[in-house]
Amino acid sequence: MDELTGPPEGSGTIRALLTQAKALDDAWQYMVLLHFTLRIVIRDRMKSTVITAFVVVACAMTLRAGSYTWNNAGNSWFSDANWDGDAGYPGNGDTAIINSGTILLTNNTAYLSSLTMNGGTLVMSNWSTTLSATNIDINIGSTVTLPNAFKNTPMSNRLHFVCGSFTLATGATINVQGRGYAGGNGTSSTDDGYGPGAGQVVGGYYGGGGGNGGAGDDGCQGIGGITNGSVNTPLNPGSGGAGNAAASGGGAVYIEAAGTITINGTINAKGNESAAHGGGGSGGSIFMSCALFRGGAAAKLMADGGGCVWYSPTQHGGGGGGGRIAVAAGMSVTELQRLLDGLTVTNLLAYPTHAGYQGTLSVTNGAAMYGTTPIAAFGTPGTTRFLTTSSAMASWLLVRGDPASYGNPLPYPNG
To answer: In the prediction, which pLDDT does 156 show?
Structure first.
């Protein structure tokens, strides 16, 4: 691998460093360059050199960044031929733009400067795949999704974003409905669903619904799946129902932002409805962590359980349980890690609503349906939670509405 050799002496130092930085292809050289320029600062001890050194670092990073636009030549993110712009595919500090087409992302991206979707469909495959960028903007007409539902081994897919800021615009969609654990698909007792809250069948094919945030209900010949996962940091995909043509659970969505998450579009992690005698899939999971969370009236966060078909009181499956949705805002890195580890977080506060989010929040249960009418076998609704700490609240200032109209709400859901 190429490497920086150190700052040459004399008046050509800055020019030589810049030339070396442009020639390298990894992110670590910027830290090395910064180290060398700081050595120059310490050696010269001149204010003008301090200013020049940091300008050089900024210029080197800017010159390294490239811009790439998806050209629809194929479907793999990691194929050079599928991107127009600089040679190769997007790397550290680069800009990626998607306007149309279908893109398959099977491994971690580099840490991009930005990802902008103005259309097209991005399919993220594999549990460990992470899309990382300083800014992620998913605009109207764009869709991010997962491959089809999976079984217990190996657990296959989720959506995972790591970023500085994340925006899902009005008319944009993250759709993982039915992309969690698979449902059973047969007529014997071996056709249970999949996942930690899988529905089961007992001696027939009218199986129970899958469980996640809420339990799945029993079918005529089956048992509903149990609740599972975390109410504070939900990461589990939804589990599948059991029995004949049972339904799959909703997928898992995990968004980590150091700054602001803005949701004005739709995140759909619903469980599917069964096609015949089996149980419905449970809703999936949506978890977001950020410094600031907000969303307009058009926003939709959905992790509903799937329904099933009702033929008669002795011929029906069970409805799927609702999923889980949680948002952790304004927490420190240490507090958030403790939350993810299931440890106690000092002064943790939890609310059912959030003043900055004006959209839909839905984790309803599935039911056995006769046409469009729910008849029986209701699953249990899922869970929703907005989390912060009292120390984070001390730095908030959010004013909305007229106290004369809203009164004096506790614990401050209006602002």
So the answer is: 86
Element (H, E) at 309: strand 308-312
Cis amide leading into 381 (omega within 30) = no
Among candidate residues 152, 158, 105, the one with its CA nearest the CA of residue 127? 158
C-alpha to C-alpha distances, 30 to 24, 122, 299, nearest whole angstrom? 10, 30, 39
53: enclosing H helix or E strand: helix 47-64
- Give dist(CA 159, CA 360) in Å, integer: 21
Say how far apart CA 219 and CA 276 lie, in whole Å: 12
pLDDT attached to residue 75: 96
pTM for this one? Answer: 0.81
Contact 368, 314 (CB under 8 A): no
Q: What are the C-alpha distances in Å from 101 to residues 57, 112, 308?
A: 36, 20, 34
DSSP characters over 103-171: EEE-SPPPEEEEEEESSEEEEE-STT--EEEEEEEE-TTEEEE--S-B-SSS----EEEEEEEEEE-TT
Supply 259's token pair.
């700054």
Mean per-residue pLDDT for 300-316? 93
CA distances from 203 to 32, 219, 223, 269, 308 (A): 66, 11, 11, 31, 19
Mean pLDDT lowest for which of 200-209, 285-294, 345-354?
Answer: 200-209
Nearest to 227 by CA among 368, 382, 336, 70: 382
The region of weakest confidence among 21-25, 90-94, 200-204 is 21-25
Query: What residue type is 41 in one-letter code?
Result: V
Residue 400 pLDDT level (bands cut at 50, 70, 90) = low
For 129-148, letters b (16+ CB in 10 Å) and e give: bbbbbbbbbbbebbbbbbee
The one-letter amino acid at 324: R
Contacts of 157 by beta carbon, 8 Å cutoff, 6+ apart: 124, 125, 126, 127, 146, 147, 150, 179, 237, 251
Cα(first)–Cα(last) distance of the chain, in Å?
Answer: 53
Beta bridge partners of 308: 368
Q: Is 93 helix (H, G, I), strand (E, B) or coil?
A: coil
State how far the Cα of 175 lies from the Cα of 157, in Å rounded to an integer: 13
Tell me the pLDDT of the chain averaged across its residues.
Answer: 83
pLDDT tens profile 129-164: 999 999 999 999 999 999 999 998 877 899 999 999
